[in-house]
Amino acid sequence: MKTYFDSDASLDPLRNQTLAIIGYGNQGRAQALNLRDSGLSVIVGNLQDESAKQAEKDGFPVHSIPEAVERGDVLALLIPDEVQRKVYDDVIAKRLRPGQTLDFATGYNIHFGIIAPPKNIDVIMVAPRMMGAMVRSSFERGEGSPAFIAVAQDATGKALEKALAWSLGIGATRAGVVETTFAEEVELDLFQEQAFWPIILRNIVDTFEFLVEKGYPPEIVALEMYGTGEAAEIFGEMARAGLFKQMKLHSPTSRYGTLSGAQNLPFRDQLRPFMSQVLDQVRDGRFAQKWQKEQQAGYPVFKRLVAEAEAHPINEAEVRMRKLLKFKTE
Ligand code: NDP
User: Which domains does the chain have, with CATH numbers?
Assistant: First the structure.
């Protein structure tokens, strides 16, 4: 496994190239600002809307998406994954020139064959492992945030150098950039979203419901579980010190309770079949097909799930929880 840092990369493959950021959203804005601050030539392609106004305000040349595709040498597709195929089919595909580079921030659409670019362009991935706002703020602090990179097509023989140059430009090589594949990035990402986080989410919701049923005040239960921000700090320490090593920061009572409780969970043997099922459906493309059908139908299941989540009593408990302490809400 190879990790690249600043000294392993050069901006040269992207100098004298026009970098077209297609979609000035979370990642688009952060990456555009960082690349420009690194001295590269950046333009923005966006719909005529608020994001376009923001890009103009930030001082970028803003074009329609077709125009940006024509002007750009590297095209970073930083619009939501669900709309990339339509924008690619309707606007991008017919304008592609040999030697251009298509850059993605996730392997999803290439790996599942939803977008199939011609063989005469480079296809690279620079996938920050961080939200856009943090890609920008960590760059401004001089730290950078890590990313995965991969090459799916190397028409020019320079695809990897371009991916590294992009990583250097957005500040990712300051923290470290790990070379992976489109498949590995997307499979791990989807597995994380569909197995790892649901178990945590279910645990929080069920714990909340159980303890409220047992008579504890809802806002105190939410505060105890995650409301003070301690849980976020613990995750931070897991990254810095280690999963088990960070436990030294907790009391012996807490460590004993957590370690013995984790060994004795009655449903542990059911986790692996659940994880296998999720991973199989991610790997063989069944999830991607199901999600595409959901999009085509107008997101009926997704909308229902969001509505149910927003109606859950934990939302009300959080309002009261925030009144208990001095919360910074913005
Ligand atoms: P956003 O949702 O923030 O992107 C929005 C941008 O796409 C806006 O400029 C938006 O314009 C434009 N857009 C939306 N719909 C369309 C459309 N139909 N046609 C043209 N433009 C459209 O995206 P993200 O930054 O979250 O994601 C971009 C890529 O980065 C994705 O591949 C994602 O998987 C990846 N990624 C995202 C991360 C994150 O931090 N969110 C982390 C790592 C990777 P408008 O203003 O009109 O909405």
Answer: 3-180 (3.40.50.720), 185-323 (no CATH)
